[in-house]
Request: fold
Amino acid sequence: SNITTGPDGNLWYASNEAAIVRVTPSGVATLFPTKPGQPNGIAVGPDGRIWFTDLSTTNAIGRSRFIP
Reply:
């Protein structure tokens, strides 16, 4: 999936704009760049952090530092 609900109650999604986006319940969006990167799938891991796949040249799995 490209969108998930985080443990913080916000929506998180992988953007085609090389960023992970957090959207609050009131509609405020904040972009967190993943440059270089092309985030795709996104999910909450058992550690409570946002994890995502990166389809850029790195073909990696990333973990956000945005949620402690």
User: Anything to note?
Assistant: The radius of gyration is 11 Å. The mean pLDDT is 82.
